[in-house]
Structures are given as C-alpha cells and as structure tokens.
Amino acid sequence: MKVFYCHNCHHQVFFNNTFCENCNTLLGYQVNHKTMGTFEQVDAEHWKSLNPQDQGQLFKPCYNYRHHQICNWMIEADDPNIYCESCRLTHIIPDLSLDKSVMYWHRLEKAKRRFLYLTQQLNISPRPKKDDDDRYGLRFNFLMSSPNQPVMTGHQLGTITLNASEADVVHREKTRLNMGENYRTVLGHFRHESGHYYFDVMTHLYPEWLEEFRYYFGDERLDYGKALEDYYENGPIEHWQEFYISRYACAHPWEDWAETWAHYLHMMDTLDTAYHAGICIEANHKIDPDMHFKESPIGSLDFEHTLTNWFALSYSLNALNRSMGLEDAYPFTLSNGVLDKLRFIHRTLMKVALKPETRRSNNQEIF
Q1: What SS3 class is residue 85?
Q2: How many Å apart are CA 97 and CA 225, to the nearest integer?
Q3: How crowded is residue 86: how many other Cβ atoms within 10 Å of its Cβ?
Q4: SS3 for 3?
C-alpha cells in the first residue's frame, strides 16, 4: 500500500484514518485517485477537497461514513449513489440489534476495503452484482450465525458469504486451532473467497484458460462434495507440503486455486507496502537473499526478482515477529510446485486482467 500524507499539514496518514491525528483535518479515501484525500466540511453533506489534483471540488462522504462511522470512502458530490464503491458491494449486513454486530461489521468492512484497494492496484476491481443472474458482478453477505442457523463462509455464483463471527478474535482463534490452520484472518477470508469469484469470471471469459489451469492445479471437474468429504475424513495427502501452499489446498483444485490466489494477494500487498515505504534488506551472509526493488511488485515484469524479494521480506518478518514473542507473520513454505502456481497466477493477471480489451464481454463491463 502507498504511503499517504495530509495535504493540510503534510504529516503521514493511514488508509483507515478519518481525520489527521496531527491537525484534525478530515480525511477520506478517493477511489478515482487511489489515495487518501484531505477535506474541509462545507455543510452536513458536502466536503470540499484540499487536494492539489481536485482542489475546491465537492465530495460527499459515504452514507456509512456519515451515519455509522463504518466507512471512510468518498463519493463525488454529483454522484447519485449514497454508498461508496466498497459499501455498494455489501448486500447484507449483520443484524445490528445483536450484541457486538456493529463491531463485527466495522471489522469486516475494514478488511474488505483493504482487499479492494489491492484489486484497484491490480486493475481487477469487482463491480456490484446487478441481480442473481449477473455472472460477473460480486456481492457480500455478512451474516450472524445462531445455534439454530449456522452460517458457512463461502462463495457461490458471485456472492461471498462471511460468518460475521469471524470478526471476533476469540471465535476465529478457536476455529483456527480446531481446523488445524496456521493462519486465519478476516482479510485472508476475503482473499480466499475472492479466488473462487475470479476463477468463475475467468472460466466464463476464457474457457481455453482451463487447460493451463488444470496442468498446475488439477481437474476442477472432480466431484467437489466428495472431495471435501474425503479431505475432512482422511486429512491431507502425505507430503502435501511438496505440492500445496496449505493443508486445505489439497482438498480440491478449486481450493488449491483459492488458497494460492490468496497467497499471491498476500505477497503483492506486503511487497507493495515495503516498496512504497522504501524498505530494502542487505543480506549479511552470501547465501541469504536480499531485497531491492527495481520496479513496483504490482504487475512486475521480472516476477522472479519479485519472488526473491518475497523470500527476503517474509524471512525477515518472521524473524522480527519471533523477536517479539509472536507467531510467524507468514507461516508458510513455498515449494517449487507452489512457486509454479504463483507464476501462473501472475501471468494470468499480466496477460488478461491488465489488458483493457479483456475487461468487457457482451458489451458489459466486467471489472
């Protein structure tokens, strides 16, 4: 993620800020510029931009910004929408009458905005799903589970459902331990489930893409229900680390893709933050990797260099966490098989998603 600054006092601000902590000037994220903007309130609904690129232009905070303090994204004043591009993707919110649901909603939207920021950088921002038959749009349902009505996190036909309890740290940690996972975060859920969504989009747009997909991930036509049943009954295959990024990835090719896709997004976001922060790593031993950026990792032309940078950064992050008595920030091993899958994902985005001519189908915008 980029480094943002207040245009009023020039101090650093952050992606989730609503005001500058140095000068108290109002802040809001502007999708069109992919940056945090600085504003002066004109009236109850309108804010005036203090940014050099659109100084004096009027904007309005998202409805969920003004009324629920759930969001911090801005909309141009003449836009008929009252919700920002992030909040328009949310179809169902948790029942706000239930205990802690507002807090859960806040955490879910915060993670969703972080996920969406990276899709903007990759030029694959999803648009809201128009109706149930819209195969290219996306919507999110955030549901509270109950003893009589459990909620399963998952994706189906462009709708991603998240159990709002995943925003509860204690619940999520218990689930992580019960499932034998070494990583489980709200942001990770968004990235994993989005993998299923983008797989469907790619399959509809480019069915010939499946041939190479099957070479790396296997045949997705295998019975999904039976595959999951076998996985939960028998566990992962022996020596799964040689071929998969996680235990769950070996359950079915769809899950392998979604898990690997999520890890690609983890890499890109973390490396992009290091790139914009000007971080570099000098190896103290000749066999250790170092990290020097010669280009942005987003859409990098030399992905092998990007992978080398990732090895250096993740190794250092894990070492720093251990120094603080924390678990590894990136508790995974990238085998040669997994690296090939990551290369395939990068090629897919470079050759397909980043080309404007591939962003439309049947005269409708895809992303």
Answers
A1: coil
A2: 35
A3: 23
A4: coil
Long-range pairs of 142-150 with CB within 8 A, sequence gap ≥ 24:
142/90, 142/92, 142/93, 142/94, 142/104, 142/105, 142/108, 143/92, 143/94, 144/94, 144/95, 144/98, 144/101, 144/104
* DSSP three-state, residue 365: strand
Residue pointed to by tokens 């914009």: 276
pLDDT tens for each residue of 76-132? 999 999 999 999 999 999 999 888 999 999 999 999 999 999 999 999 999 999 999
Helices (H) and strands (E) in the chain, counts: 9, 13
Residues 6+ apart with CB under 8 A from 47: 26, 28, 39, 40, 41, 58, 59, 60, 61, 74
What are the domain boundaries of the chain?
4-84, 85-190, 206-367
Q: What phi, psi does 16 have (nearest 5°)?
A: -100, 5
**CA-CA distance, 195 to 220, in Å (whole number)?**
14
* Residue among 118, 157, 115, 156 at smallest CA distance from 136: 157
Beta strands in the chain (DSSP E): 4-5, 12-13, 26-30, 35-41, 47-49, 58-61, 74-76, 90-92, 139-143, 154-156, 159-163, 360-361, 364-365
Containing H/E element for 78? none
Which of 223-232, 260-269, 351-360 comes out lowest in average pLDDT? 351-360
The pTM of this model reads 0.94
Instruction: Provide CB contacts within 8 A for 211, sequence distance 6+.
Output: none
Decide: 73 and 62 in contact? Cβ < 8 Å: yes
pLDDT of residue 285: 86
pLDDT at 129: 95
Report pLDDT for 166: 94
Query: What is the radius of gyration, based on Cα positions, of the chain?
Result: 21
Token pair recorded at residue 70? 């759930």
**d(C-alpha 188, C-alpha 112), whole Å:** 10
pLDDT in tens, 248-304: 999 999 999 999 999 999 999 999 999 999 999 998 888 888 999 999 999 999 999
